[in-house]
Amino acid sequence: MLKTISPSCDLTLTMLILFSADVVFSTANTYYCRYFLNDANFVGTFIAITNVCKIGAMVLFLPYCIRKIGKRNALIFASLVEIIALSIRYIDPSSVSINMAVAVVLGLAKGFTYACMFSLLPDTVDYGEYISRERHSGLVYASASFATKLASGVGAIIASGVMQFGGYVNNYVTQSPSAMEAIMYSTTLIPIIMFVAGICIISFYKLDKIFPEVIKELKRRKDQNNPDLDIKVS
C-alpha cells in the first residue's frame, strides 16, 4: 500500500510547500513594492511581467525540457531557478530594474513549476493502478486540490505572521527597520527555504525512471483483458 501512495504523497506535499511559498511571496510582495520601491502600483506590473513569461515558458521551452530531462527534473530545475530569481532581489532591493529582472526570471520558472506539478498527477494515478490494479484518480486529484487550497491559507498566515513579528504596522507611511527586514525575508529568504524543502521532497519521487514500464504494463493488461479491441471494424 505504501508503494501505491508514495509518489502521490511526495507530489502532494511538494505542491503544498511550493504553492505556500508562492503565496508567501505574493502576499508580501505588495508591501515590498510599497515600501522598498515606493510604488504600490508596481505590483501590477510585476504580476503582468511574471504571467507573460510564465505562459511563454510553458509554450516555448517546457515541452523540450521535459523531453530531455523528464518532468520531475524539470520541476527541480525550475525550483532552483526560482531560488536564483528571489536571490537577485538582494543585489539592490530598491531598484525597479532589478525587480523587473526578478519578475522575468520568476515568471519563466513558474511556467515550469506549475505545469510540471499538474502534469505529474496523472502519472501517479497510472502508477497506483500499476501497483494495486485499482485506479484512484479521484483520491489523487482531490488530495492535490486540497493541497493547493490549504497552501493559500498557510502561505498567507506565514507572510502575515512574519511581518507582524517584525513589527509591521498597517497603513504607516514608513516602517521600522525590523518591519522592513520582515517584508524582505517574506519575499526572499522564507520562500527560498520552502523551495529547498520542496526540492528535497520531490527528489524522492522516482516515478519518471520507471514510467515507460508502467505504461507498457498497463497497456498489456488492457489488451489481455480486452482482446477484441484489436479487431478492426469494417
Question: What do you see in this structure?
Answer:
With 234 residues, this protein is an all-alpha fold. The protein has helices spanning 2-35, 42-69, 71-88, 96-132, 137-165, 177-187, 189-202, 207-225. Helix 1 runs antiparallel to helix 7 and helix 3 runs antiparallel to helix 7. The longest helix is centred in the middle third of the chain and has 37 residues, at 96-132. Mean pLDDT is 89; it is low at 229-234.
Short overview:
By secondary structure, the chain is an all-alpha fold. The protein contains eight helices and no strands.
User: Whole-number radius of gyration?
Assistant: 21 Å
Apparent shape? elongated
Largest sheet: none
Can you tell me the residue ranges where pLDDT is under 50 for at least 5 consecutive residues? 229-234
Taking the alpha carbons of the first and last residues, their distance comes to: 44 Å
Following the backbone from N to C, one meets helices and strands in this order, namely HHHHHHHH
Can you count the beta strands? Answer: 0
The computed structural class is mainly alpha
Helical region count? 8
> Strand portion, in percent?
under 5%
